[in-house]
Amino acid sequence: MIDFNRETAEELGEKSELFRQIWKSQKWWQHIIDAITDYLFVIDNNFRILRTNKAFAGLFGKEPPDIIMKPYYELFGLVEPHEWCVSPKNNGVSCPGSVERTINEAVYLISCFPISYDQHDAMVYVMKDITETRRLKDQIYHLDKLSSLGTLTSGVAHEINNPLTGIIGYTEMLLMGDRDETTRKYLTNVYDSAIRCKKIVENMLTFSRGSAFQ
In angstroms, how far apart are the furthest CA atoms of the chain? Predict the structure, then answer.
């Protein structure tokens, strides 16, 4: 006779081991997702969160189980999805792809990827905080503009310096001669103005060369 109780026990043992392996596999993948520091979440056709990582939930001071099956946009205090968010039912509009958006004074690179599993469509979103990267990029761009300005300043300063030298030289020669008081006053004004311009040009050259500024 077949020992049905023994056979049933063996089947239950195999199923228990299978469930244990599945559970371990799920936990493993969840640990992998939670290890990602970028903000990751998966939505369904109604923009409800199917899965997320700790980083995204922590952005709102919550744990992943607290926000599952909730419309993602409500976490941002909105009544409808962002313009960049596409649900799985119309993912052909702009996904997969990436956009840069400013949300709550932070700049994010937002990427989306459509997926399908067990006849269910979903959309994976990854939000990467690039605020610091954008700040450094803008700073480098600003420094590059300053460098270009320095080159331009040097050229302009040299072009101005040549006629200034002539003005100062000829004015000094005129002041050496016999002049009436009014003419001497006018020439002195021209000379003083030219000297002041010369000092400005020297400061411009100091700036363009990166020398110690006095």
Answer: 142
For the record, the structure tokens of 170 come out as 């000829």
Q: Which of 77, 76, 94 is nearest to 85 (CA)?
A: 94
Q: Please provide the DSSP assignment of 133-202 as one string.
A: HHHHHHHHHHHHHHHHHHHHHHHHHHHHHHHHHHHHHHHHHHHHS---HHHHHHHHHHHHHHHHHHHHHH
The mean pLDDT of the chain is 82
Span 134-209 CATH architecture: Orthogonal Bundle (1.10)
Alpha-carbon span 205 to 199, nearest angstrom? 10
Query: What topology is assigned to 36-129 in CATH?
Result: Beta-Lactamase (3.30.450)
CA distance 76 to 127: 13
Domain residue ranges of the chain, discontinuous segments joined by +: 36-129, 134-209
What integer is the mean pLDDT of 195-213?
74
Distance CA 82, CA 79 (A): 9
Whether the per-residue pLDDT at 63 is higher than 60: the answer is yes
Q: Which residue in the block uniquely carries the two structure tokens 């300005």?
A: 149
